[in-house]
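ugh ok so i messed up the first submission bc i forgot one of the chains. this is the corrected input, ALL of the components this time, i swear. 1263 residues overall. if the numbers dont match what u have on ur side tell me asap before i send this to the collaborators (the ones from the other lab, u know who)
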Amino acid sequence: MFGGVRSMKRSAVSMAAISLAGACALSLSACGSSGTSVASSGGSGGSLAGQTITVYSGQHEQTMGKLVQDFTARTGVKVQLRSGDEAELANQLLVEGSASPADVYVAENPPALTTLENKGLLAKVTASTLAAVPAGDSSAQGDWVGLSAREAAFVYNTGKVTAAQAPTAIKDLASAAWKGRLGIAPSETDFSPVVSLMIKQQGVAATKTWLQALKDNAKVYGSNEDLVAAVNRGDVAGGVIDHYYWYRLRDEQGASGVHSTMSYFAKGDPGALVDVSGAGVLASSKHQAAAQAFLAYLVSKPAQQIIATSESYEYPLLAGVTDTRLSRPLDQSGPIASPAELGDGKQALQLMQSVGLLS
Amino acid sequence: MTLTSPSSSAPLATRPPRSSRLGGWRPGAAALPLTAMVVALLVACPLGFVALEAGQSGWDATRQLLGRPMVLTLLGHTAALTAVVTAASLVLGFGAAWLVERTDLPLRRTFTVLAAMPLAIPEFVHGYCWVSLMPSVQGLWGASLVMVSSLYPLVFLPVAAVLRRSDAGAAEVARSLGHGRLSVLWRVTLPQCRPALAGGALLVALYLLGEYGAFAMLRYTTFATAIFTEFETAFDMTSASVLALVLIALALLIVLLQAWVVRQRGRVVRERTSGRPAAPIPLGRTKPLALLAMTALVGTAVGVPVYALGYWLVKGSSTTLPSASIWSLTLTTLGYALGAAAVATAAAIPVALYAWRRETRLARAVEQTVYLTRALPGIAVALAVVFFAIRYAQPLYQQAPLLVAGYVALFFPLALTAVRSSLAQVPHAVEDVARSLGTRPLAVLARVTVPLILPGLGAAFAMVGLTASTELTATLLLRPTGTDTLATQFWTYTTGLAWGAAAPYAAVMTALSVPAVLLLTRRTLGDSRTHTTREAGR
Amino acid sequence: MSGLTVTDLHAHHGRNDVLRGVDLTVKDGELACVLGPSGCGKSTLLRIVAGFHPATTGTVTVGDRVLDDGRRRERAEKRRIGYVPQDGALFPHLTAAANIGFGLPRAERAARVPELLDLVGLAGLGDRHPHQLSGGQQQRVALARALAPRPDLLLLDEPFSALDAALRAELRTEVAAALRRAGATAVLVTHDVDEALAFADLVAVMRDGRITQSGTPDDLFHRPTDAHVARALGEANLLPAALNGDEATTPLGTLLLARPTGRDDAGTVMLRPRQLRLLTRADTDSWTHTLRATVAATQFRGHDHRVEVTPAADGLDHPLIAYTDTAPPPVGTSVHVVATGPVHALPAAGAATTAPTGDLARHQAR
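and heres the new structure output, hopefully the right one now
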């Protein structure tokens, strides 16, 4: 009961998961009060207060802004927030190398973090921080920690597709029924994890066949934003996106402007992918303590509650914090794809390139 | 008329000779080529970065990379788009310029300003407006439509300037030799505009090579898309750089082609010597048709984006009154853009002067090199600046000067084109004469050359300021941490799908650009014969 | 002390040798004119003297100042040499007055500018911009601007070529007069022989990067050292002759030489068209020797007639030119050509002062 419903679900996967869930449950009592403990250590010790850390963030800017503000109020650590495209920021970090002014990098998806990890640019995350979220949501090496999750979903135009017609397996999108009616955004960092999972489950050959069919069926969009808007307008009947894009669209269009809804792929299907956003501390950071404190804060209850109520519409990862606005809780979804499973996404990428979905 | 005058008897040689010591080779002789080359070298830094990164790719990896099925397809896309958009921009740009400069089209002044106005609308706003209003605008033809309607002014303005200044006599002679209006247009007027057409086409084509953002919105993949995939999905800078080299090779081809076209018939456009403008050609019965065509052009290129912005301002439910911060964002944006405009314009002077004064192969090569950077995608240029700054200018890293430097690297060719074309109007002898009157080279620059090319400098300043104020990719990477510009804020909202909230920022960006376009139009077209009056003896 | 001396000047543009050993001396206060066809290097010579183009070897001296010795150059702005280019090259952004005052210290402008406007006859037009002035007025401003700082030497590069004929004649006379009054040393380059003769105390004929002859206009006109110079100063009839002391035997008979050559060999004599007279058969009695010829072409030029006749004699394969005051007989008429006055014998090929070897032969063969 400490571990929360979601980690119970995960515990079904393996014994290892159970023990990890236990570890997480144990640490949660600490995590639960970590917000206050960080604050008090900042207030009394004064060692961190007054320091300034630089955060490169590929995350939703407004949400990140709220988190940073709250963190500074609690710890006295000033944060210089640098928001940008997660991939561009990752490239920037790669070019900067050890001279980077960044202390923390917050990404939307694991591949960017994994790339940095593989280049040895990230420092190990403090154990207590890693322990705050389910172990599978963070880097296996402990170089970065998961903060929130998003779920792949099928968005469809309610005028063109009925709920019954919505696919339950992502494989179905290869069928001729979807020819010319489908939209995908394969260049988005969110899409290649789906392909990675497909490769894991079905093998390379089957995935390639599927991608080829997908290419024939689908219109290719440059971004999920464009795709979800196109579905809502009815340019295409449906498409694969991350769930939060639809919520953000709903906010923008208002009730009268929404002509679309979402369905989810069946549990265990590669389409039912739950993907984490994570953060890591740069190995070159000169403010390791403050940077680690920021990561600890991000997985603390106050921070996770901010995530649960922000316009980013991502699932918080901390047990006990839920976003009640989302149509279904995360624990009804499939398993969170472990970063180890997803790797750096190179294989998926090459496959997409070989069939011409990507250049 | 007589030269006789009693006071003229002052002997010429009564002043005692100054020191007869020889000066030797003045250091200034090497200063100009040196400065020009240093500027070119700095601007070409991104090329160096790309070459450096690409150099790490093995031969096999390179072959595999370039052998991908999509690479050829995308090269085809880029070639098709470049050909279609450049050709259409030439036709529309020339047609519009001819109508407003040489015919009796009504409302010519208004049309001149309106036809230049698409420059005030940032490209991504163009794309976003079309997509949000007319989703069917996509693919090659959609991308072409959007690109032409935002890029044709790059042809329109220089051609209009040439038509306004060039001698109408040639056209009249051709008429007297029995050529009809169309024949004159084709055989006399068009060749007169050749260098201007080639210059405009160069800017359009180079822009298209490296552009990615607008096409992504229009669902049209180009070669730049492949480069982006390598950068942003694969985090593979080496592969991205190899592909970028292909782009540079294409750019080189275009630059050389342009130079060849210009050289074909010499670059001398005869200036109007009579001081008499050409009599407007009566359009007669085709007047309504011409009026309709002009209205359609302006309506498409300016009307649609303005309508779309208005629509989102009113309709978007995320529209709130933009916070007071929009004003500070405006100031920040202006500060960076004006800084970049000033630096780029100043830096363009030595390069342009060098190419103008010495028509050597080296000078031409230096000039042409800087155009190549224009073909690189913004992210490659931005990462190159990161690469060099973090190594050699660490204290400046992520400081305002570096962002300005990034803008300069990106938009230098725009400044160079403007300065170069106004220098072309200056007779070489004026500099010689000024020096024979005892003026030092730097003073000659300040007192003669710069005042003469002021219109060109104004145009360069406006053009760079205009483009830099809407730049996004390099801004995100190079801006000082914690500062935002209008473009980054617009981007933040649109990535959050909050179009309504984004619209005010696009509107402010557009509004900011309007004065710059007016300045640009005036500077580029301003009558060459009325120069700034300056008091003698001041 | 501001005469110009140019010694053995060589220069090149890229790979082309433009000057191949130019020697020229212009005395203080002299107006010199370098005459030559376009492309002969005369503008380059001027630009080297002005300091805009480097010499390869050779020296340029003004007064006692060495300006260029092929290795070290005085900067153009330190030379105190005024320069008036072909198109005037007025600063289009400055008024006439500001153009003239350009090379003057601020303090002097107020006094000197009106003086110069006066000098060039443009008093009251100082506020005009170049585009508000006529071509002739623009050239006057350019001249005044060059004179304003009281240069040691003034260089004029075909300054009147853009003007119409009447204005050109008027302006060059005025300019020459003004320069003489001012005691200026000046070098003008032109391809127009009338301009050279009207303007200059000293004419230097230039060809293929060298000065072939220099001297007073009279000297050059009457005593050219080679065929090229002879023709550069005006039309000339060059006839083969056998020289013998103070006489020359030619197809026109034996003629007295203006200056004995002291040679007894074959050579060339020059007769200006005014030295030929055309006679009808009836008038030939008083002449010991005449040459039969046919009128090939005539041209009335107002002040005289230009007549081309084809001689019947062997060895004269090109027409002779004569200027006559009275109307010539119609084309096709047979006439007798006689020579009047002493003739000038061109120096033998090897003896020509500066003419390159072989030049003479080439010209005669033509």
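quick check: Chain B is about 70% helix and 0% strand. that seems consistent at least. The longest helix of chain B spans residues 69-102.
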